[in-house]
Amino acid sequence: MKFTNMDIISMKDFSRDMIDHILDTAEKLEPVARGKERSDILQGLVLSLLFFEPSTRTRMSFESAMVRAGGSVLNMGSVEASSISKGETLADTIRVIDGYADAIVLRHPKEGSARMAAEYSSVPVINAGDGAGQHPTQTLLDLYTIRRESHLEGIKIAIAGDLKYGRTAHSLCYALSLYGADITLVSPESLRMPEEIIEDLRSHDINVYQTSSMEEVISDIDVLYATRIQKERFPDPTEYQKVAASLKIVPQLLDEAKEGLKIMHPLPRINEIDPQIDETPHATYFRQSFYGVPVRMALLSLVMGREP
Ligand code: CP
């Protein structure tokens, strides 16, 4: 399986065998990611981080992965402090950074920007989120979390929240279709998953149900994947309040849940999960954000030709 120099742009670029190989590699590297074992697999390599939008987890877990595996990081810092504020284009910025690093991680508000950057770069470009498009490394760590904490094959999962604009939900649905998942989409009518994604899932023989009620599905699922409801997209604040209240995960909702139900969230959460849930065995979201480190370490070692 050839990963060296591969650009990581969309989950659609991955077969199931490729995903399994990345997850297996991440499992091997998890002790290094936890700081329990030492490794120099990325020694002498430099990773550049270009974030045109805010990030905590993606940016810092890439940094942690690189540093714990012996590599170094060049962070462009804020857009205001860079020459982009003088009007430099993304294409020129990429051409320049290509000479400073062995791989580039890019988060940008424009859909398609990572694919475009890859055309100007001789080193691998990793998409860390391109507008409402894809966030493939989030999906890989979500799959790792599901495999590590539950099971992937035939998983019964409900994905809840803003399914219209949420890029993590789009990438995750596609990837789960490779594992025969049974998917329930929970959202208000106005934030339903785009029809082309649902058609794509059905063309892969995936069972997809849509509902607005969490109560309707809670007793039947292995994983509840919550996503942020994007308040800024609601013209009427009272509409937002209604939706946010109807999809909030509160302790009473879990009365009917399976004992082994895992609750996931890409974070940051706003009001989607009551903090009381944090103390229950269902809360998986903070471990999920840690799993970003072994998964990104695995991906970096594979694309930079240092497979452990
Ligand atoms: N999950 C995620 O992408 O988080 P950040 O925006 O903090 O990177």
From TrEMBL:
Listed NCBIfam families: asp_carb_tr (TIGR00670), PRK00856.1 (NF002032)
Domain Aspartate/ornithine carbamoyltransferase Asp/Orn-binding: 153-302
GO MF annotations in UniProt: amino acid binding; aspartate carbamoyltransferase activity
Enzyme Commission code: 2.1.3.2
Keywords: Pyrimidine biosynthesis, Transferase
UniProt superkingdom: Archaea
Similarity comment: family membership: Belongs to the aspartate/ornithine carbamoyltransferase superfamily. ATCase family.
Stated role: Catalyzes the condensation of carbamoyl phosphate and aspartate to form carbamoyl aspartate and inorganic phosphate, the committed step in the de novo pyrimidine nucleotide biosynthesis pathway.
Pfam family, one: OTCace
Lineage: Archaea, Methanobacteriati, Methanobacteriota, Stenosarchaea group, Methanomicrobia
Binding site for L-aspartate: 86, 167, 228
GO biological process: 'de novo' pyrimidine nucleobase biosynthetic process; 'de novo' UMP biosynthetic process; amino acid metabolic process
Summary of subunit composition and partner proteins: Heterooligomer of catalytic and regulatory chains.
Catalytic activity: carbamoyl phosphate + L-aspartate = N-carbamoyl-L-aspartate + phosphate + H(+)
Binding positions (carbamoyl phosphate): 57-58, 107, 135, 138, 267-268
Pathway(s): Pyrimidine metabolism; UMP biosynthesis via de novo pathway; (S)-dihydroorotate from bicarbonate: step 2/3
Gene Ontology CC annotations of this record: cytosol
Name of the coding gene: pyrB
Aspartate/ornithine carbamoyltransferase carbamoyl-P binding domain mapped to chain residues: 7-147
Protein's recorded name: Aspartate carbamoyltransferase
Top EC category: transferase
